[in-house]
Amino acid sequence: MPNYTFHARPIFAAVALAATSIAAPAPVHANDLLVAPTRIVLNGSRGTEVILNNIGTEEATYRISLELRRMTADGNLEEVEIPNEIEEAAVEMIRYAPRRVVLPPNQPQAIRIGVRAPDALPDGEYRAHMLFRAIPRPRPVAEEEPQPTQGFNIRLTPIYGVSIPIIVRHGELAATAAISDARIVRDNDRRAISFSLSRQGEQSTYGEVIITKPGIDIPIVRARGIAVYPELTQRTVTLPVNEAFEGSLSGPVLIQYREIESDGGRLLAEARTELR
């Protein structure tokens, strides 16, 4: 699965999560829920809003909560079982309302988000993930499947959801990035380029990766929403090659890691290297 895309899938007795470590600037949706923006960064006490929109044809109910997730070395996010002090502080200081919404079709709803930082909070980046989870509608008795005469009849109900990172930055923070160890790989039966993306500093990095070859007009890879969170100093990024590119991947390439345009578009890291 490319680690820069958003997707939602039904799972049973659990929640389908978007790949929030790498939120894109465009709205993201799971099932019939549209969420925008898909990444929140708060500096200071000023709050903001997330807009939910039910793009389905029926009324839907959603529960909003906070959860903790950590990035792994391959860029995935894993649920935190034992939070550390930074993670506990993030959950305690992030305020939001409402926590449950009922949305008619095509009806937007704003979720207000703010921060109440404690006194003497150490400088740093604090992060929790806001989860928007659909609450399944009760089924009328007439719609229930007939019960078997023997044994058990189990009906599984898919639960859909999407989560986005809520990042709180406190103090004067900075970060730098570097690219190394680029190589050609196969990912889900597609040609891909993999490399190591390292980070140094007190905050996360977030941006897009653009890979070009000399003499080729279009980037052979362009992927938005690539993040390295503070719990890591290095992660692996694996990105599929543009399907329009039919040439050989071997040879010189330029790999650039840039902030997204809305953040200024600053070059975070680049590497000229030979792919093999």
Taken in chain order, the helices and strands follow as EEEEEEEEHEEEEEEEEEEEEE
Whole-number mean pLDDT: 86
Q: Which structural class matches the secondary elements?
A: mainly beta
Instruction: Please tell me what the overall shape is.
Output: globular
Number of separate strands: 21
Q: Name the strands of the widest sheet in spatial order.
A: 2-3-5-11-9
Q: Please tell me the total number of domains.
A: 2
Which features characterize this protein?
single chain; 276 residues; mainly beta; Immunoglobulin-like; 2 domains; 5-stranded mixed β-sheet; 1 helix; disordered N terminus
Tell me what the structure shows.
It is a single chain. This protein is mainly beta. The chain has two domains: 144 residues, Immunoglobulin-like (Sandwich), CATH 2.60.40.10; 101 residues, Immunoglobulins (Immunoglobulin-like, Sandwich). It is 3% helix and 50% strand. The chain contains one helix and 21 strands. The strands form six sheets. It has a five-stranded antiparallel sheet with strand order 2-3-5-11-9. A five-stranded mixed sheet has the order 4-14-12-6-10. A hairpin with a 5-residue loop joins strand 7 and strand 8. The longest helix is centred in the N-terminal third of the chain and has 9 residues. The protein is globular, with a radius of gyration of 21 Å. 30% of the residues are buried. The N terminus is likely disordered.
